[in-house]
Amino acid sequence: MQKYKVSFPHIANYWVPMKILFSEGLDVEYVVPPPITKRTLDLGSRYSPDYVCAPFKYCLGNYIETMEAGANTLVQAGGVCRLGYYGELHEQILRDLGYEVRFVNMARARFSKPLIIYNHFREINPHMSVKRIARILPVVLKMVECMDEIEDYMRKNIGFEVQNGSLAAVYEEFLTDISQVRTKRELRRAYNRCKKRLRRVPLNVPQHPLRVGIVGEYYTIMEPFSNHYIERELARMGVIIDRWMNITNSLRPSRKRDIRNRIKPYAKYHMGATSMYTIGKALEFAKRKYDGIIHVKSFGCTPEMDAMPALQNISSDHKIPILYFSFDTQTSDTGIQTRLEAFYDMMIMRNEAK
Amino acid sequence: MIIGIPRAFLYHRYSTLWKTFFEELGIEYVISPATTREIMSQGMACAIDEACLSSKVYIGHVEWLIDRCDKILVPRISYYGPHGTVCTKFQAIYDVVRNTFRSRSAEFLDYNIDTQTPEGEPKAFLKLGKSLGRRTSSSMRAYLVARQALKADELMEQRLQEKQLDEPGIKVLVVSHRYNIYDKFIGEPILQDLRRMGVVPVLADAVNRQEAVNAAAEISGTLPWAFNKELVGAMALWKERVDGIMLVSTFPCGPDSLVNEIVVRRIDDIPILNLVIDGQEGSAGLETRLESFIDVIKFKRDDYSAEV
């Protein structure tokens, strides 16, 4: 029997828990897609329709490169916006290019219907055992939570390292550690060790550092390559970065009603996909007197676009500057850098004027 | 009280429903005129730059209605039951309009059809009637009459399309959202050009919706959007009876960006033209593309053999 070599498109560092989920839970080999590079994007955009959103192109590039690396089974998840239709077109494009792979499209899966999810998993590996996946799934979810917590800490402190790259080095080690983890206890040990080390990294935090909140579209906000590493650029300027959006937070359904109640003046209805979180968090950042907000999305992302008139009103109600980024496959690094620098200068000047 | 109805987006699908409903309740209404250059440029000025052309047109119509009526009807729809969902634009449009025109003293009237309320449309209209100070019984009556009127309209339209499908001569299936193809600025020039060239345009959107949604699965299995399912279904049902298919979308339509690509890749036995309208082009470029498309069809049908 041919061995299943499964792969899922990249999003930030989540390939680590993903690998454990597939290899331990489903008993298949997991092929980590090669890191996203310019080539990934070039490949993806060459074969994608012109004005589809950028995440589609990144995923397609990922698929092609991961097949070159030996994967023979590709997985695509569903979603509430265009994302829900990605899978079928991805598969069609790859077939037309002549790739013969298994493509598991989970577009119809709903978290509320475990049986359908189970059937999709069965599609990935017909010989899977429920026991195995039941054992590893809580560990994987907890792992994602730990990663998100540590990354949050890093975003808030990375701008003030005495020695550049020292926090990132600790985190790299943590990722290597947890890729060996199989139980919650091992995970907790790795997590505590990492936290201890992070706290020991010398920081030089000024009295009143600038605070910037980042909001925006699911993929672009999380995948650093697709947002041109704006968090890294901001860190270099010595800014506290606050970003609520990550896998853990987006999976917590209990928060939804809370957020919707708070943003009533700006949105009567659910406006689709992540736009509620965008408005909710922007409002929170504004109320907490942050120095600025950055809104990121891929070009043409409808839900995020529809959140923008609300953001503009929040900006004028709370006197908080918002910088809007819309990333395409052609955006240049220099242009982004210039706009970030101008935004930074403006925040500094506003602070001095106070 | 006078209700303002923007002549864009869902107006082109529900005009009979809305008009009859308000008439039955004895409520006056005013409808914005067919899209003009001014309405379009107002919409472009007020909307977010990269929003789709159709939504800019909508914003332009809302802008036209401000100060010309007491309340502007902006419904919010998120779900069509088993037929599927809608583009998030229709989920958001009420709040987009409200936020965009916050500084202008305008009031908006809405009804909401959501996943959470399975009763859907009737309930939404009763609520709408209540907010206009009408009794539930009279709103219910008005709604039922309006539904019936809409159904009659749709049947008439379907009959007409069926009849056109049987006509001799070149027939092109125009696959476009209703709010695009019926718009004076976006779709109308295309239909006029086609007729001028002696081609019969058959509108995909005038299909029997239930049949189309069922047939859509023949072409695409995981399609989530109701409007696109209807269009794709129309292609599955009618493609043997026409000479070519024209996909007309506005830039940068989210659902169409994916669906058109699927269609072009999966339907390969009939000429397909993929037109994307961004509101900037002059008419010459459009005409050239239409003419060459019709030429392709004619060559395929061998209509040129006599002339050559």
Q: In which range does the helix fraction of chain B lie?
A: 40-55%
**Lateral arrangement of strands in the main beta sheet of chain A:** 2-1-3-4
Largest sheet of chain A: 4 strands, parallel
Number of strands of chain B: 10
Beta-strand residue fraction of chain B: 5-15%
Main sheet strand line-up of chain B: 2-1-3-5
Beta-strand segment tally of chain A: 8
Q: What's the architecture of the largest domain in chain A, going by CATH?
A: 3-Layer(aba) Sandwich
Give the number of helices of chain B. 12
User: What is the class of the largest domain in chain A in the CATH system?
Assistant: Alpha Beta
Radius of gyration of chain A: 21 Å
Report how far the terminal alpha carbons of chain B are from each other: 65 Å
Helix content of chain A: 55-70%
- In one word, what is the shape of chain A? globular
Secondary-structure class of chain A = alpha/beta
* Radius of gyration of chain B, whole Å: 20 Å
Task: Report what the structure shows.
The complex is a heterodimer of chains A (354) and B (308). Chain A has 354 residues and is an alpha/beta fold. Chain A is 55% helix and 11% strand. Chain A has three domains: 5-128, 3-Layer(aba) Sandwich (Rossmann fold), CATH 3.40.50; 138-205; 206-354, Rossmann fold (3-Layer(aba) Sandwich), CATH 3.40.50. Chain A has helices at residues 15-25, 38-47, 54-68, 83-96, 114-124, 130-157, 166-178, 184-200, 218-222, 230-236, 247-251, 255-262, 275-287, 302-318, 333-353, and strands at residues 5-7, 29-30, 73-76, 102-105, 210-216, 239-243, 292-298, 322-327. Chain A has a four-stranded parallel beta sheet, sandwiched between helices. The longest helix of chain A has 28 residues, at 130-157. With 308 residues, chain B is an alpha/beta fold. Chain B contains twelve helices and ten strands. Chain B has helices at residues 11-24, 37-46, 53-65, 88-100, 121-131, 136-165, 178-181, 188-196, 209-216, 226-238, 254-266, 283-301; strands spanning 2-5, 28-31, 71-73, 76-77, 108-109, 112-113, 171-175, 200-203, 244-250, 272-277. In chain B, the strands form three sheets. Chain B has a four-stranded parallel beta sheet with strand order 2-1-3-5, with helices on one face. Chain B is globular, with a radius of gyration of 20 Å. At the A-B interface, helix 4 and helix 14 of A face helix 4 and helix 11 of B.
